[in-house]
Amino acid sequence: MTYPNTLIFVDLASDDPEATGKFYADVFGWTNEGRPAGEYHRLVPGGNFLTADGSESPTGNLHIGISNSNNQRPHPNPDGIGPRPLARGAAKARIWVLVSDDDSAEAILERATSRGATELWRNHYWKEFNGYNAAFEDPWGNEIVMWIKAGEEPEVPANFTRE
């Protein structure tokens, strides 16, 4: 078998990359890097993927980009393309974030909604992948689903919805 094509980056669309970068730095504690500031931002969670025994692997956690919907780069046209409307209320790509044992979906939802996000749901269990989840839409229309591992024999709380 040949080596597979691999995912290297996902961009969130925003008409204000600087404000979006600050939002995610405040909500998740990620580093917000302007590359250059206001035009494109990179969010860096820090740390490395964990191995099965819980120790850090040599592989760093993935980064997320924030592209400017008013002129998305890179593009072969020197003038760029845009502006493009933000996706709100429509089907779109979703970003899934594994919630750290040092945080909680409830705390993240509170930080996000206090900064203008809209809560989509909380307290849901998805049996197919054995995890609890909650979601919000950021002020720019991007949907974030938070994932919490349920463990070997999960006890799903009675107030949780489930599939």
Tell me about this structure.
The chain has helices spanning 17-28, 105-113, and strands spanning 10-14, 31-34, 40-44, 48-50, 56-60, 64-68, 94-98, 118-126, 131-137, 143-149, 161-162. The chain is mainly beta and 163 residues long. The strands form three sheets. Strands 7-10-9-8-11 form a five-stranded mixed beta sheet, with helices on one face. The protein has a four-stranded mixed beta sheet with strand order 1-6-3-2, with helices on one face. Strands 4-5 form a two-stranded antiparallel sheet. A hairpin with a 4-residue loop joins strand 8 (118-126) and strand 9.
Write out key terms for the chains shown.
five-stranded mixed sheet, single chain, mainly beta, 163 residues
- Uncertain runs are none
Task: Give the class from helix and strand content and strand pairing.
Answer: mainly beta
Order of strands in the sheet with the most strands?
7-10-9-8-11
Indicate the radius of gyration in whole angstroms: 17 Å
What is the general shape?
A: globular
How many beta-strand segments? 11
- Our count of helices gives 2
Largest sheet: 5 strands, mixed
Fraction of residues in β-strands: 25-35%
N-end to C-end Cα span: 36 Å
Question: What string, H for helix and E for strand, traces the elements in order?
Answer: EHEEEEEEHEEEE
